[in-house]
Write a structure and sequence with these properties.
Layout: E1 2-6, H1 11-22, E2 26-31, E3 45-49, H2 59-62, E4 67-70, H3 82-103, E5 107-111, H4 139-157, E6 162-167, E7 169-171, H5 180-189, E8 195-196, E9 200-205, H6 206-219, E10 225-228, E11 231-234, H7 235-246, E12 253-254, H8 257-274, H9 283-289, H10 298-304, H11 312-324
Parallel strand pairs: 1-2, 1-4, 2-3, 4-5, 5-6, 6-10, 7-9, 8-12
Antiparallel strand pairs: 9-11
Helix pairs in contact: 1-6, 3-4, 5-11, 7-11, 8-9
C-alpha cells in the first residue's frame, strides 16, 4: 500500500507516519519548505514539498496512492491573521479531498479534533452523538476544525471513502514545537506554572492515536467520527501527576476564570497585538477552559479496536523527552 500523509513533520503526524511505515506502507510525506525534519529520522519515505494553501500542486503526489491520511492542520490558539488558519484547515481540506478523488485515491483518513465536540461546563462526558453546532465553537481554531470536519463529512456523504478521527489531547515524546498542551508540561518543568484554573482535559497517548490511524483504513466506517481519547482529568490532577513523576511541587493556588481572562486580555493586547509575538495566555484558551473537555472513546474501542490506556507512561515519556532535548532542566524523577 502507498499512503500520502500530510502533517508528518508535526507531533501527531510523525507518530502516524512511523506506524504506517512499521506496518509496511510505502510513504509519501508532505513537508513545507520551512518544516523541521527531525521527527522523520529513520522513516523510509519520499518527501513532497508543498503547502495546503496551494493544494493544486499536490495532485501529482496523490496519483498512484491507495490512501490519503490528512493529519496536517494549523493548530494555534492565537493567530494574527485568522484567514491563514481557515485557508489551511477548511479550504485546504476541501481541495485535498477533491484532488484525492481526481487522483483515484481509494481511502481517506481525516484527522479532525475533539475540539469539534459539544462540550459542556458541568463536566458531562460527551461522545460523537452529543449535539453540537458551529455556534458552540470557541475561537478560530475550533471553528476552522469544525468547518474542515464538515467538508470531510460532506465528501463521505457524496460517496468518498472518508473516515474521521477526533483525537483528544495527545501527549508523548517528540513534541517539537511544542503544541499548546506540550507547553503546559514545559512550563511546569520550568516552574512557570504558579497557579491553575478549574478546567479539565482528556489526555491520550499519541502512540495509541497513531495506531488508530492505521486501523481506521480497514475498520472505519466512511462518514463516521471516532473520538480517540484516554483519561479524563482536571488540570489540577494533571499537574499533580507531573509532580509525582518529577518531584516538582504542584501549584496549590486556583485562579478564578475572571482573573485568568483579565491576564489573557492584557497578554494578548501587549504581547500579541503590540509586539507581534505569540502570547502565553489567550482569551480563546481561557474561554475554552470554562468547559470540561471530558470525552468517551467507546465507539472507537468497539469499531476500531482502539485501546484506552492509563496516561502515566505517555506523560512520563513526554517529560523525559522534553528534559532530554533541552526544553527544561533535569529534574529528579524524570530520568529514573
Amino acid at each position: 500500500m502507498r499512503a500520502f500523509i500530510t502533517g508528518a513533520t508535526g507531533f501527531v503526524g510523525a507518530h502516524v507516519a512511523r506506524h504506517y511505515a512499521n506496518a509496511g506502507a510505502q510513504l509519501r510525506l508532505l513537508t513545507r519548505k520551512t518544516s523541521r525534519l527531525d521527527s522523520l529520522q529513520g522513516i523510509d519515505a519520499d518527501l513532497v514539498t508543498g503547502d495546503l494553501r496551494q493544494p493544486q500542486d499536490l495532485l501529482s503526489a496523490l496519483r498512484g496512492c491507495d490512501a490519503l491520511v490528512h493529519v496536517a492542520a494549523d493548530y494555534r490558539l492565537w493567530v494574527r491573521d485568522p484567514s491563514e488558519m481557515y485557508a489551511a484547515n477548511v479550504d485546504g481540506t476541501r481541495a485535498l479531498l477533491r484532488l484525492a478523488r481526481e487522483a483515484g485515491v481509494q481511502r481517506v483518513v481525516y484527522t479532525s479534533s475533539v475540539a469539534t465536540m459539544g462540550f459542556r461546563t458541568d463536566g458531562t462526558i460527551v461522545n460523537e452523538a452529543t449535539p453540537v453546532s458551529l455556534a458552540d465553537m470557541i475561537g478560530h481554531y475550533k471553528r476552522s476544525k469544525f468547518l474542515g470536519e464538515q467538508e470531510a463529512i460532506k465528501a463521505a456523504q457524496s460517496g468518498q471513502h472518508v473516515m474521521i478521527l477526533n483525537p483528544t489531547t495527545p501527549i508523548g515524546s517528540g513534541d517539537l514545537k511544542p503544541t499548546p498542551t506540550g507547553r503546559i508540561i514545559v512550563d511546569f518543568l520550568n516552574r512557570k506554572f504558579p497557579a491553575y484554573v478549574d478546567t479539565g482535559l482528556n489526555l491520550v497517548d499519541v502512540d495509541e492515536v497513531a495506531k488508530a490511524h492505521v486501523a481506521a483504513l480497514d475498520h472505519g466506517t466512511p462518514g463516521e467520527r471516532y473520538i480517540l481519547g484516554g483519561e479524563n482529568l482536571t488540570l489540577k490532577q494533571i499537574l499533580d501527576r507531573m509532580s509525582a513523576i518529577t518531584g516538582l511541587p504542584s501549584p496549590t493556588m486556583k485562579v478564578p476564570h475572571a482573573v485568568a481572562m483579565a491576564f489573557a486580555f492584557f497578554d494578548e493586547t501587549i504581547t500579541g497585538r503590540l509586539l507581534g509575538k505569540e502570547p502565553r495566555a489567550t482569551i480563546e484558551a481561557v474561554r475554552m477552559g470554562k468547559k470540561m473537555m471530558f470525552a468517551s472513546s467507546t465507539k472507537a474501542e468497539r469499531e476500531l479496536g482502539f485501546h484506552v490506556t492509563p496516561i502515566y507512561n505517555a506523560l512520563r515519556s513526554a517529560i523525559d523527552w522534553f528534559v532530554a532535548n533541552g526544553y527544561a532542566p533535569t529534574v529528579g524523577g524524570s530520568t529514573r
